[in-house]
Design a protein that fits this description.
The complex is a heterotetramer. Chain A is α+β, with helices and mostly antiparallel strands. Helices cover about 45% and strands about 10% of the residues of chain A. The radius of gyration of chain A is 21 Å and the shape is globular. Chain B is mainly alpha-helical. In chain B, α2 packs across α10 and α10 (about 240-265) packs across α12 (about 280-310). The radius of gyration of chain B is 21 Å and the shape is globular. A two-stranded antiparallel ribbon of chain B has the order 1-2. A two-stranded antiparallel sheet of chain B has the order 3-4. Chain C is an alpha+beta fold. Helices cover about 20% and strands about 20% of the residues of chain C. Chain D is an alpha/beta fold. In chain D, α2 (about 35-45) links the parallel β1 (about 30) and β2 (about 65-70). The radius of gyration of chain D is 18 Å and the shape is globular. The chains are: A alpha+beta, B mainly alpha, C alpha+beta, D alpha/beta. Chains in contact: A-B, A-C, A-D, B-D, C-D. The interface of A and C includes residues 94, 330, 345 and 350 of A.
Chain lengths: ~375, ~350, ~190, ~160
Amino acid sequence: MVNECVVNAGHSTGDYVTINIGPSHPAMHGTLRVIAQTDGETVVKADPEIGYLHRGVEKLGEHLTYHQFIPITDRLNYCSAIANNVSYEMAVEKLMGLEVPEKAQLIRVIMTELARIADHQVLVGILGVDLGAFTPFFYLIIQREEIYEIFEWYNGARLTNTFGRIGGVEADLPDDFDARWRELRPNLFKAIDETDKLLTHNRIWMDRTIGVTAFSPEDALAWGFTGPCLRACGVKRDLRKDEPYGLYDRFTFDVPIGKNGDVFDRYMIRMKEMEESIKIIDQAYAMYQEMAPDAPLMAKVPKVIKPPVGEVYHATEAPNGELGFFIKSDGSDKPYRIKIRPPCYMVYQAFPELVKGEMIADLIACLSSLNVIAGELDR
Amino acid sequence: MNDWVIAIIKVVFIWVWTLLVAVVMTWVERRGAAMIQDRLGPNRAGPFGLFQPLADGIKLFTKEDIIPANANRILFILGPILFSLPAFSAYAVVPFGDKIVIAGKEIILQVSDVNVGFLYVVALGSMAVYGVIVGGWASNNKFSILGGLRSTAQLISYEVPWGLALLAAALVYGTFSLREISIAQQGTFLGFLPNWGIFRQPLGFLLFIVAAYAEANRVPFDLPEAESEIVAGYHTEYGSMRLGLYLFGEYVNLCTLSALMVTLYFGSWHLPYLNMEAFLGPISYGIASFLVFFLKVSFFLWLFVWVRWTVPRFRYDQVMGLGWKSLIPLALANLFVTALAIQLTV
Amino acid sequence: MTMDLLKGVSNCLGPLVVASGEFRGDVTVEVPKARIAEVLARLRDDPNLAYDFLVDLFGVDNLDLYEKAAKPKKKTEGEGDAAEEPKPAGPPPPRFEVIYLLLSLSTNRRLHVKVRVPEDDLSVPSVTGLWKAATWPEREVYDMFGIRFPGHPDLRRLLMWDEFPAHPLRKDYPLEGRGEERILRYE
Amino acid sequence: MEAYTGSGWLLTRLEQLVNWGRKRSPWPLPYGTACCGIEMMCALASGYDMARFGAERPSFSPRQADVLIEAGTITKKMTPILRRIYDQMAEPKWVIAMGACACSGGVFRTYSTLQGIDHVIPVDVYVPGCPPRPEGLLFALLKIMDKIDMEHPLRGEISSLVEGK
């Protein structure tokens, strides 16, 4: 009985047709699966099935040392690996009670915000592709390549960066960051602007997104929404502002919020956040330039990290929302238990509620706008 | 006997020409998309990748031919043929130039000048939906059937404004023959505009072009094969050359629709303010009229590509809403106003 | 500040707090398992605390921790064999924990609420009635540890496939698995 | 008869033509499950533009695809689905295993991860890296083209036809 719904998605019952969408489906990003009961084109019931990318990251973490786990965090939300790295490192630093040098924190801020831009670019591009507009995706990807170049030239990897170390960062920003950033900055604005022109006021785009899968703030909070999806519902909550970690209390930036929590608001939040991130990078880089060139980059960290017995939870604002790491230490060099709180996990579980009564095309739009990354969803 | 030879030459010419344009269109589409998207596009097969469609064709021909186990075999085979044949046949009545005089014999550049060519085109246009629905149904796949259903609903809905827009044009020209319509577009309108259909029927043209995009299943109306929603729509289960026929039929369809647009609204082979017949020899005039026609068609073909890579796609209910709530009332109003104007002026 | 928080929580919960602790600013309170839903409802509705947001919910298996405490010299390396080793004498402490991470949106304070689940009674009342956000996390805990949540609307496996025979995040389950394969019947 | 069988001139030329067609039009089935999927996207997008080699029109329907680009981790839960997708593809078909996870399981030596997709489907080209750069994928595509060049698509069929008569 349990098997029948697996590949052939069961048989249609009664008046409804059961449609199996995924896991290999263009809009399912590889590993998601939704079993939808439809009445014509209207979705009566959608049942998401996850776990197709469950790689046992949490179990693996119990068998790796604290440092060895950093590369694994890259592969959680692979659109913005650096945000995960930083989040994990901060959790371990909290566990160890380490104080990270200011310069290292500034570099972290710069890199994390770049990663945020890269993440949002993917989301907006893919949302366009899923709604049938292919071209913005290409415009955004071109600029994303330039961000990748900065990452690559900082630490050798394009996507899975393994950025930073526990207690700081591994290297200073290279000398020509200034030149690269000055070249990249106008291009980023240009890409955002082009996308804006192509999509935002496009009548078809507005028809397809405004009011689609709207969500009330009360529901969003009950379902545990965080990040852009929560802000789209009109709740002003950003961990960078509300529980400032690192140096985020020193920067001035806005937290854009939406009204209806529909696909359009989620899209607009991302578009605006990209611009806010550029603002933050500007400020952080100005502060970085004032630092002494030989300022320390690492706190005093022992070779083998053996934190005291205890358990901590530390959350940061990842591009998708609150990314938290719960680490329980038993005093050895390996974590006793690592629990990752992925942002899109909570968002995606409200999916049946979101798409009920909408059309199949809206289901796809909604899924894209939630930015469900299977890597962190399934871990 | 001589007439027979000429007719056969014309048929072969138009077939080859349509095939060639459809083949080149696949190349234009890919390179055009690449140009719009800041890429290069296929450039390895032949010069500028011009032989890319050929490579695709060879590959599709030599690929394993799969008919799914649960599919309806006969209909599955019939689907692509039903889809691509009407597209070819519709071309028979579209004039692709004025006339050419060779050895004292006047040859009309049109396969056959049917006096109800108009109705013929409309009738064949609605035939294409059978290819889609038959293919979608025969595949026995839920995505295919969804695609087929979407296509049927869409084509039926847009047939109405399409037909009404055509009807208004027919009222203006007072004929159903596409050749006579073409000839009627010579000269100027109101003294300063070219005497083209678009100036006599601006709303009609808009209705026609929107409906044509829907008829051709092109973005923003590509719901029957909406990639991100229903995988590949009605041809999800089709591979090898059967898929090739579907893809190919689509481009032939585009050709026909563009030719129709030019014939009805853009003065067919006429250049604005210029009577080519007056200063060109009989043969060169024939060739020139064909070239002018072809250039105009190319523009509309390119427009199809251009639009495809610019706008997102509609949702199903929005397509229906647009068709029934906006286009049909507008088309009816257009028809009424046209009829009134003709009544008053005559 | 953390002391204030602890005081506020114990005022709110009274004798329900079995134990409490603080580490690096994270406050943890332990409450009896059977009354978890009541505790969380009280924390949520208390006007001063207003823990109105469930951040996460997850399980912890303490098997190795107790074994290490019982034999401090000898560290077990292979978790695979751990299950077969004799349990330490005396009544074993509850093996599993379920931890609820709460957040107050108005004050931005966080609280960890912990319940202990003994191996012979693997069930914790569901809190899906309080927060819908608990739906998948509870399913995941069931999937990974085998802890049941009576009152959950749809308690199925979440990440592993339905016929998977074990609960992988338990400490006695080897990292590389026991060679389970998924076999699907095609029609 | 000689021309049609063995390594006759006509057959060889025809085979070359068929191979050329297949080589220049490898439509991919982008099966990006994890991190490598993002790099695959980059390879398809403007910077690297896999379409130059004719590998355009990503076909998500397995019936229409030629090259299965398996980019990313395959978990045991996914294994039967991957197998089914491969089975649904029409011959001739090729498989690129992109990334360490697809090749060997990569860093995820865990209970839920398949240790290399070659346990379930045959793989033509392995691309190492975690994830590989888009250039790696392009190189794999070129390797597939080399492989196509070495094939004799018609030989078996024609000789069996001739001998059968």
